[in-house]
Amino acid sequence: MCEQKYSMVLRRCRLLGAGDRETVDIAIEDDTIVAVSPRISGLGEQEIDIQGKLVSPPFVESHIHLDSALTAGNRDGIKAALCLREFKFGVNASKV
Q1: Residue 89: Cβ-neighbour burial (10 angstroms; 0-12, 13-18, 19+)
Q2: In this structure, are residues 10 and 53 in contact, taking their beta carbons and an 8 Å threshold?
Q3: What pLDDT digit, counting tens, does each position of 37-87 carry?
Q4: How are strands ordered across the β-sheet holding 32-37?
Q5: In this model, does residue 31 exceed pLDDT 60?
Q6: Can you tell me whether residue 11 is helix, strand or coil?
Q7: In Å, what is the CA distance from 10 to each residue of 2, 37, 74?
Q8: Looking at residue 39, what is its pLDDT?
Q9: What is the structure's pLDDT at 3?
Q10: Per-residue DSSP letters for 24-73?
């Protein structure tokens, strides 16, 4: 019987709510967490010993208010793209 192979296995990870001293292994395949267990028997192409440090999901603020971003509209008759260009590059949009 062959052992399961993963892209990456993170060993001895501490998770919030999992107890102070308990650690788990996290198996990742193609950028997706596929297993969380006290001991994953499979091997990873890359293995990292986290040494009991806390592991958490990324803290990324990914939402955007499309109503504001896409309907910036005109500002004194200047199209939204020119306003952005003025803001980003310091170009005076009224002279473009």
Answers
A1: exposed
A2: no
A3: 999 999 999 999 999 999 887 776 666 666 565 555 555 444 555 555 555
A4: 32-37, 24-29, 5-13, 43-49
A5: yes
A6: strand
A7: 20, 11, 50
A8: 94
A9: 79
A10: EEEEEETTEEEEEESS--SEEEEEEE-TT-B-----------HHHHS---
- What token pair was written down for 78? 């200047």
pLDDT at 22: 85
Here the tokens at position 87 are 């803001």
Both tokens assigned to 67? 């109503």
Whether 4 and 42 have beta carbons less than 8 Å apart is answered as: yes
Pairing of strands 24-29, 32-37: antiparallel
pLDDT for residue 52: 92
Mean pLDDT calculated for residue range 18-35: 86
CA distance 16 to 56: 8
Quick one: tokens of 24? 């788990």
Using CB atoms within 10 Å of the CB of residue 27, give its burial: 0 to 12 exposed, 13 to 18 middle, 19+ buried.
buried
